């Protein structure tokens, strides 16, 4: 059973239950929405032995601050009133939650719970793997062509668009649209067309040759064709403190966490389109922004650059690179920065850090050999076919010059038309 509580109720929960897992969630937070169904489903299997509770982070700031919760969502595990295990933050995988839950219980109890989860096989005509604009467009076209279509995503539909503050250049909307709302419109259109959704799931294995996808360790989905639309993810700096302070002062999502830095100082790492455009949203909350860019100039589009440089809150440090993130004994963070011209190293004190340094294709769980370019993006022909028969790829995961919402939608349209002609109904 899953129960919502307030901060003054936590102590009672910890006294009455030996094992407790607490979810700090926020509104308008795509990772929180992606976690919710996973958390609820696990409560049905583990609920007899572990108390599942959730708490609205914005409405319980005092406790969140006391527990040093700085990102949404955050899962905290308690045993006999004390925090144990690994604190999980952000895009939380179901397997990571299960690992923590299992560590709280005796081996025989874990074995009993596992026995309750029975393997199942589901059949469909086409699997669309990934719910960004390209995958949603492909799903809509396929479903409207009466092709049985299942969209699978480890998060909620929308992809990167869900964490984009505003989209001002998507055709059909006079006024700029909030990214999560544009994603919502697309996913609702897909549902209305008849697309079946398997979202907020863990994708354990993808067999492109046999057109099979294993979900959450027990459900195998089989299809005639697969369209890969898993997009790209933020690149990590891989420097000291980045992993340690992720969710504790370091964020990769302005839409999720900018609101927690009202009248505070933040550092933005990066100088491309994402960094510069998201600085506009962050500037609505923060009192000061220091933008650190390794190149001699910003690389965002000119209009965004002009708005950024005209913002009195933003100070741009060109030809600088971060070397590490540290705590200074308080809630403040220190960003160690090197001047690439003089090699001088100094510390910048800040309340939080946002990292926007590029993307990488999401191909980690694809085990089959598939032709890619030098950067790992999948090569396709003019009908979005990959080097594996019956497998298509669209959107940010493919090798191409421009990556925009509109180009992803175009890719999805092309792939779905080509794919629909080859499906045996």
Description of the structure:
With 425 residues, this protein is α/β, with parallel strands linked by helices. It folds into three domains: 2-116, Glutaredoxin (3-Layer(aba) Sandwich); 120-233 and 359-420, FAD/NAD(P)-binding domain; 250-355, FAD/NAD(P)-binding domain (3-Layer(bba) Sandwich). The chain is built from eleven helices and 26 strands. The strands form seven sheets. The protein has a five-stranded mixed β-sheet. The longest helix has 17 residues, at 30-46. It is globular.
The total of beta strands comes to 26
Helix and strand content put the structural class at: alpha/beta
Shape: globular
Mean pLDDT: 93
Main-sheet strand order equals 1-3-2-4-5
Say which CATH homologous superfamily of the largest domain is assigned: FAD/NAD(P)-binding domain
pLDDT under 50 segments (min length 5)?
none
Under CATH, the topology of the largest domain can be stated as FAD/NAD(P)-binding domain
Compute the CA-based radius of gyration: 22 Å
Q: What is the percentage of strand-forming residues? A: 25-35%
> Could you say what the CATH architecture of the largest domain is?
3-Layer(bba) Sandwich
Distance between the termini: 41 Å
What is the number of independent domains?
3
Proportion of helical residues: 25-40%
Give a quick account of the main beta sheet: strands, pairing sense, barrel closure.
5 strands, mixed
């Amino acid at each position: 059973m899953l129960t919502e509580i307030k901060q003054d109720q936590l102590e009672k929960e910890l006294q009455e239950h030996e094992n407790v897992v607490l979810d700090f969630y926020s509104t308008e937070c795509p990772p929180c929405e992606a976690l919710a169904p996973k958390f609820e489903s696990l409560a049905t299997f583990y609920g007899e032995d572990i108390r599942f509770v959730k708490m609205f982070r914005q409405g319980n700031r005092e406790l969140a601050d006391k527990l040093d919760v700085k990102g949404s969502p955050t899962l905290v595990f308690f045993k006999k009133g004390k925090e144990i295990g690994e604190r999980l933050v952000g895009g939380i995988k179901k397997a990571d939650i299960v690992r923590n839950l299992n560590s709280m219980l005796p081996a025989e109890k874990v074995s009993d719970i596992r026995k309750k989860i029975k393997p199942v096989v589901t059949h469909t005509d086409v699997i669309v793997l990934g719910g960004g604009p390209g995958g949603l467009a492909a799903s809509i076209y396929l479903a409207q062509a009466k092709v049985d279509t299942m969209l699978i995503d480890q998060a909620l539909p929308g992809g990167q668009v869900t964490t984009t503050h505003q989209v001002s250049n998507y055709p059909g909307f006079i006024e700029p649209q909030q990214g999560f709302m544009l994603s919502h419109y697309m996913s609702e259109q897909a549902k209305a067309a008849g697309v079946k959704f398997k979202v907020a799931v863990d994708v354990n294995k993808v067999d492109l040759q046999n057109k099979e996808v294993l979900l959450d360790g027990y459900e195998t989905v089989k299809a005639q064709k697969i369209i890969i639309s898993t997009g790209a993810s933020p690149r990590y700096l891989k420097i000291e403190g980045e992993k340690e302070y992720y969710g504790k002062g370091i964020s990769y999502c302005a839409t999720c966490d900018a609101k927690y830095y009202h009248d505070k100082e933040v550092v933005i790492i990066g100088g491309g389109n994402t960094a510069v455009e998201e600085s506009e949203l962050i500037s609505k909350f923060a009192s000061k922004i220091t933008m650190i860019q390794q190149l001699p100039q910003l690389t965002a589009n000119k209009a965004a650059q002009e708005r950024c440089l005209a913002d009195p809150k933003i100070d741009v440090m060109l030809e600088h690179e971060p070397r590490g993130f540290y705590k200074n004994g308080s809630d403040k963070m220190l960003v160690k920065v090197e001047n690439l011209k003089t090699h001088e190293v100094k510390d910048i004190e800040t309340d939080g850090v946002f990292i926007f340094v590029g993307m990488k294709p999401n191909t980690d769980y694809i085990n089959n050999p598939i032709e890619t370019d030098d950067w790992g993006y999948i090569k396709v022909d003019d009908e979005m076919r990959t080097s594996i028969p019956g497998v298509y790829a669209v959107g940010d995961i493919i090798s191409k010059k421009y990556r925009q919402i509109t180009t992803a939608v175009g890719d999805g349209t092309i792939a779905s038309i080509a794919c629909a002609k080859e499906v045996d109904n």
